[in-house]
Write a structure and sequence with these properties.
This protein has a domain at 32-95. It is built from six helices and no strands. It has helices at residues 7-29, 31-41, 48-51, 55-66, 69-79, 83-94. The relative contact order is 0.15.
């Protein structure tokens, strides 16, 4: 029997999806940053439509903006997203890290 998803977990999933969609929209509106993301990820523009259903792609996209503080802050300022929401989305798609104490 699969584990039961709580209302809080479901809400966090929805927020993570909204954050991921905002990241993709923002990246698409920033040609230089978007090209850097494509080059580093190896994804082509025509593959994006299929890649967005892959949690690993979403995790990588979010990690891309988290890996460069000026990019993260530019995203947050442009979209009104709190950095904590980006971190929460990263945890949602990537799972806990070793420092979290959750395994």
């Amino acid at each position: 029997m699969p584990p039961k998803i709580t209302a809080n977990q479901q809400a966090m999933g929805v927020q993570a999806e909204e954050t991921a969609a905002a990241v993709l929209g923002w990246l698409a509106s920033e040609p230089d940053i978007f090209q850097r993301f494509l080059a580093l990820s190896g994804v082509t523009p025509d593959q994006i439509r299929h890649a967005i259903s892959d949690p690993g792609f979403l995790a990588g996209m979010i990690d891309f903006i988290m890996g460069h503080e000026p990019t993260l802050l530019a995203f947050c300022e442009a979209t009104g997203t709190k950095p904590e929401a980006v971190v929460a989305a990263s945890h949602h798609y990537s799972g806990p890290d070793f420092g979290s104490g959750e395994y």
